[in-house]
């Protein structure tokens, strides 16, 4: 038998249902942010995530939605950045705040199974050596990629952006994008602004091959908390302007 949710979760779920009050289309984004904060059941500062299903078929490369977005209010998380660089770029990475910097020595550590970092950045000239690490880094979502801005000669800028709240996103096999937009301790305004930034990024990267309704479903949720449905028509109107 599957495990059941506890009393706190059941009470939180009831509050979500009361907020919906029979609305099939979900809540307005502002209200959804309020409810998801109020129904967090964790005793710690839980992460708030957005889960948005897009009208794309990720089995086709031209419909894959992938990129990065800088959240105006950060993620509330300390991000450990590893940089695969050499020469003068090593100092540039260190000065920008990278946690681990190296070339062949860092590659050797990763080959031995070390992956204690959250984001990897590499200069293009290092990718011939970093490429073989794909079997280790790929499954963990750590492989540097030009589309996400993590393969670049502008290492200092990339490190500062990642440290400052840039997050990567990509559709999974079901066409869903999962993005952390902050912490429960964030104000409703800060979470709303971060959500708007994510929506704008998805709109900008809408594949030309995508047909029909682009935003299919959207939910906010917290670590261990119930999901809160968002009215996708209202979500699609979000802007950071």
Fill in the keyword field for this structure:
241 residues, Rossmann fold, 33% helix, Ribulose 1,5 Bisphosphate Carboxylase/Oxygenase, 2 domains, 3-stranded parallel beta sheet, globular, alpha/beta
Characterization of this structure:
This protein has 241 residues and is an alpha/beta fold. The chain has two domains: 124 residues, Ribosomal protein L1/L10, rRNA-binding domain (Ribulose 1,5 Bisphosphate Carboxylase/Oxygenase, 2-Layer Sandwich), CATH 3.30.190; 83 residues, 3-Layer(aba) Sandwich (Rossmann fold). It is 33% helix and 20% strand. The chain is built from nine helices and nine strands. The N and C termini lie far apart (49 Å).
Radius of gyration: 19 Å
Mean pLDDT: 91
CATH architecture annotation of the largest domain: 2-Layer Sandwich
Helix content: 25-40%
Number of helices: 9
Helix and strand string, N-terminal first?
HHEEEHEHEHHHEEHEEH
DSSP strand tally: 9
Largest sheet: 4 strands, antiparallel
SSE arrangement:
Elements: H1 7-20, H2 29-38, E1 47-54, E2 66-70, E3 81-84, H3 88-96, E4 100-102, H4 104-111, E5 119-122, H5 127-130, H6 134-137, H7 155-164, E6 166-170, E7 176-183, H8 188-204, E8 215-222, E9 228-229, H9 232-235
Parallel strand pairs: 3-4, 3-5
Antiparallel strand pairs: 1-7, 1-8, 2-6, 8-9
Keywords: Repressor, Ribonucleoprotein, Ribosomal protein, RNA-binding, rRNA-binding, Translation regulation, tRNA-binding
Organism: Candidatus Dormiibacter inghamiae
Protein name: Large ribosomal subunit protein uL1
